Amino acid sequence: MSAPDLSNAAPPAVAALADVGNRAAPRKGRRLRAFVRNPTFVAGVAILGFFVLLALFAGVLCPGDPQDIVGAPVLWPGEDAEFPLGTDSLGRDVLGRLVYGARASLLVGISAAAIGLAIGMVVGSLAGFFGGWIDGLLTRLIELFQTTPTFLLVVVIVAIREPSLQTIALAIGLASWPTVARLVRAQFRSLRESDFVMAARSLGYSRTRIIVQEILPNALPPVIVAASVMIANAILTEAGLSFLNMRDPNVVSWGGMIGDGRDQLRTAWFLTALPGVAIAFAVLSLNLVGDGLNEILNPRSDQ
Amino acid sequence: MSLLAVERLSVAFPGQVAVRDASFAIEAGETLALVGESGCGKSVTAFSVMRLLPPNARVTSGRILFEGTDLLAEPPAGMRRIRGKRISLIQQEPMTSLNPVLSIGAQIVEVLRRHEKLSRRAARARATELLDLVSIPDAHRRVDDYPHNLSGGMRQRVMIAMAVACGPKLLIADEPTTALDVTTQAQVLDLLDDLRHRLGMAVLLITHDLGVVAQWADRIAVMYAGRIVEKASIGPFFAEPLHPYSRGLLGARVDVDTDEHYLANRLSEIPGSVGSAAGEQGCPFAPRCPVAQAACRQAPPPLLELDAVDTGARAVACPVSVAQTGGRHAAAVG
Questions:
Q1: DSSP H or E segment with residue A126
Q2: Chain A residue whose CA is closest to B89
Q3: Contact at 8 Å (CB) between A262 and A272?
Q4: What percent of chain B is modeled with pLDDT above 90?
Q5: Where in chain B are the domains?
Q6: For an interface test with B, which of A20, A28, A195 has the most B Cβ atoms less than 10 Å from its Cβ?
Q7: What is the Cα–Cα distance from A286 to A231, expressed in whole angstroms?
């Protein structure tokens, strides 16, 4: 008599199991778990998140203009409780400047990377998709930019125009797009031959649609990884520019702080060391995020 | 007027000719099987109908009339309106023919909205219906699945759903089951046949599997080295293949009923390889042909239309075999 009972009980359970297997939610959960389980990625995100929070809440954490002279010059960290990280040669609060510097550095980094990505993706996808003389022309253009040293190019562009944050971001973006373009071009060259692109053509889609909707999303994973490294490089380039005094004098940035502290390097080394450490950690965190993304997005690393 | 009429089509790649003087027609609602070994020009023929040839291929002559309009003269925008809407293509590889980053529902919705004025919601409902139509179980739940969640057979069903989404008049199936295992193969072909009747479309079935042809096609066109060597209805073709190549193909089949086994006796084969057709002046099959005569090597034999009322349109490019069977088939040079 137990057989009918069993057969009655089994279907809902089986259906529930099938349900779990079929739903989209657990799949997304698995993706999320892959992110959380990746220690490199988590460490990178934690450090980066810390800097992002600093940048977002700079006004709350350290009210007042970071350029204001608020205390005695060159106070060492811990010397005065009001300035936990000391003051610089003009008596400005180092902690406040570090916090506001995060804002400038991240802003320049992200907008420069965005500009570079936008140009690089357009050029790369056109070259890779169409091939032929378009590819030839665009590849020569990419090579032209690649033969010029990046930093030199940025210095020239910033020198021609006013050294404002916008100019700096634009200059770094203009100098960094060839990497993305080459990456996207290579992706497009292999993807345009794939069966699903042929299927898309056989369904009557236009070329624009095939490029934007069919190929581009498939070409993105390596680009996303490259983007995080691009932000890091942009932050470094911005720091280098500020160090060379090619900076917006009204904006505090980490590179600028290093430049300012250069004269006191022997007497008050913390003025250079603290922003240096901040830059190092920001760049490190972005590289960790990039590595983590690389592992997660790489289909072959999918156990 | 035929639904599709390919007239004296020739397609060339740099340094070689892939299709020579191919002519065939498909009537509305029928299945024509285009048969031949790898590299004989079957797929190139099909892709020229879609105007999706690789960039280095050129149509050197011929016309492709679809519902009376020459597709080769159609502007690109007009061709895009025809593709997916009135002529659809199913490819060989279901595993790679779906975009891996979009859900299957989204991909079907995309086709529907490309060719028909449908709201997103209506298109989604149609997509679910289509998945149901191609016998995907639990269609309303499967619609959000991604291609990697599906097996090869299921993916091919999704490809079929996309191909028939806008009710095409002609479906080109380029070896649709080659990548599938045998049991799935039969299911997919049954589905195609069923849809053909239900939606009233014609099918150009490209295959090298004569078993598939016998079961699912109405007519057959045999290609060899870029030429169509024989055209026939299925019944007469399997009863009496006329071209020596067709005979060789049928002879090379292993039939369960005849009790053949490779341990007991040697399986029959066509001697030589298709490569021997390269540079041949006359009939491309002459180097491998058991009945070849001196004349065969002089000039390629024309496709002779056979005047046989009971067998329907039949043509063969072999004067020798026409002469042999001359008593029953009065040949009229076409």
A1: helix A94-130
A2: A202
A3: yes
A4: 36
A5: 4-217, 224-255+267-332
A6: A195
A7: 7
The superfamily CATH assigns to domain B4-217 is P-loop containing nucleotide triphosphate hydrolases (3.40.50.300)
Chain A segment 117-156 residues within 8 A of B by beta carbon are 132
* Residue located via tokens 């892709």: B47
Residue B207 corresponds to which amino acid?
T
Beta pairing, strands B31-35 & B170-174: unpaired
Banded pLDDT at A269 (limits 50, 70, 90): confident
pLDDT of B246-295, one tens digit each?
888 888 776 666 666 667 667 777 877 776 666 667 888 888 888 888 88
Is B114 in the A-facing interface, judged by CB distances under 8 Å? yes
Shortest Cα distance, chain A CAs vs residue B237, angstroms? 32
Pick from A24, A205, A218: which is nearest to B100 by CB?
A218
User: Does residue A267 surpass a pLDDT of 60?
Assistant: yes
**A184-207 pLDDT, tens digit each:** 999 999 998 898 999 999 998 999
Which residue type sits at A12? Answer: P
Q: Is B83 close to A203, i.e. CB distance below 8 A?
A: yes
For chain A, what are the domain ranges?
38-301
Please write the tens of the pLDDT for every residue from B312-332.
578 888 888 877 775 455 444
Tokens found for residue A23: 């739903």
* Plot region of B247 (φ>0 → left; ψ -120 to 50 → alpha; else → beta): alpha
Chain A closest CA to B141's CA: distance in Å?
8
Total Cβ atoms within 10 A of residue B176: 28
Q: What is the overall mean pLDDT for chain B? A: 85
Record the pTM. 0.78
Q: Could you give the CA distance from residue A122 to residue B76 in angstroms, rounded to a whole number?
A: 23
Helix (DSSP H) and strand (DSSP E) numbers for chain B: 11, 13
Angstroms from A42 CA to nearest CA on chain B: 25
Q: For the complex shown, is ipTM > 0.85?
A: no
What would the two tokens of residue A100 be? 């506001």
Contact A24/B at CB under 8 A? yes
Report how far residue B192's alpha carbon sits from residue B204's, in angstroms, rounded to the nearest whole number: 11
CATH class of the domain defined by A38-301: mainly alpha
